[in-house]
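Sample pair:
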Amino acid sequence: MRIYKYFIYFILLVVFFLNVHAQQVDTLSKVVIDTSIRVKMAPKREFRGVWVATIANIDWPKPGHISVDQQKQDLITILDEDQRIGINAVMFQVRPAADAFYAKSLEPWSKWLMGQQGMAPAAGFDPLEFAIEECHKRGIELHAWFNPYRATYDSNFRALTPTHITNTQPSWFFTYGGIKQFDPGIPQVRDYIVKVILNVVDNYDIDGVHMDDYFYPYKIEGQQIHDAQTFKTYGGDFTDVNDWRRNNVNQLIKMLGDSIHDHKYYLKFGISPFGVWANKSHNPAGSDTHALETYYELYADARKWMKEGWIDYVVPQLYRSTNDRLMDYNKLVDWWSDNTYDRHLYIGHGAHRALEPKSRAFTNPYELPNQIKYLRNNARVEGSVFFSNNSLMHNAYGFTDSLKNHFYKYLALPPAMFWLDSVAPNAPRNPVAKFTGNSVRLSWMKPDTAQDGDPAYGYVVYRFESTDKFNLNDPKYILHIQYNTDQIYEDKTVQRGKTYLYVITSLDRLKNESDPSPTVSVTTTYPTTQ
């Protein structure tokens, strides 16, 4: 009886401490784990992106690493880890401030590559070309990330090269907050930005063009935008400078969308605005939030860009927590999902917030996983992008482990964009599987050209065991995704004494998938000799 009594006391004590701990976590983060939600896990198609920032060497290259070998190894290390995590798209920053991380450029080399603007790396090294090749080897898309309007990062203008655009076309800029910014109201500025981006579109095998949230500048107390003369010259019939500014940005986005798709129809064009389009208190079409509004303050109308079909995807930066009093994450996911107009919506997550001591909500280890769970239960949300790569590498509160081992355990293809291309490629032909003693070597013949004239761009290899249900919609059977035309793959993960069945499908540039090839089987045992 006494033992039973002590046992009851012990149980009560455990419950008490668990309750106290739960209350502390809730007080700290204001987040409750909703275990009642039936979470959609492991979709076969999901955008799983990460921003790789080059400005100020945030992610790449490491400060002081100026040799080609160092820079290549830094990027390989990043992409190897991204592949292990399950990332399938990298937003690679190629133009932080009217400068370049690529050789075939109209602008000077970025100072964050070699430590000085205009200084080239060793002959023959093109960082963007190298990044594309390494991404595609790993089944990762590369979206070239441009900052369209920022011309300098600081006020040290004397460090700029003589050929920098601020020196060759000084009338195109205004200074705000100590930095130079392109004046969006000047038509020649819009033409120039389109020209810069199309130069990359035409010369590099990128998968998409990506822009971030810097349009007209974020407001600074006591500062004003010096574009009165531009408004007087180019304002036309506009009487409200705010409407005119918004129209200037709209014109650029439409020009870019039309031009990019005209040059390469299969390229994806996406933008990552600040998380609030407009507050409901200010605009009845807005969200139930109380934060900075991109429509009114940055003159960026992302809702219109989607409605008009000028962009293919939007990645609102929802860097706040669930139940945040200004920008509730769940409310914003719901609002953006109601305003996609049949374009893709990926959520921008602030993985970096978990590394900020003041971001107390993100010290709750369930905050970011809960965000993934919430978006996966919304059919109009098709993925995530994380800021930034370095934050994922830190694995704060085990979040990266949860991606690697749980949410992104199985490979995924990016969502298809049927408004750009809805014709699937043909299936690979004549697959062959051979056990080599340590692995299974697969080979196949390329498919016939598709109905729309597109050749195969890549392949997906599926593997089943003899007892498995044959289901190509289940991502756990995806063994390998490749974005190249190699017609051979070696499966080094087989075990002895088993029978495996393989099928291969083809992919086109927009990741439309073919029907499966004929099934081939192989048993991993040596033949007996008589």
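Residues 429-523 form a domain with the Immunoglobulin-like fold (CATH 2.60.40.10).
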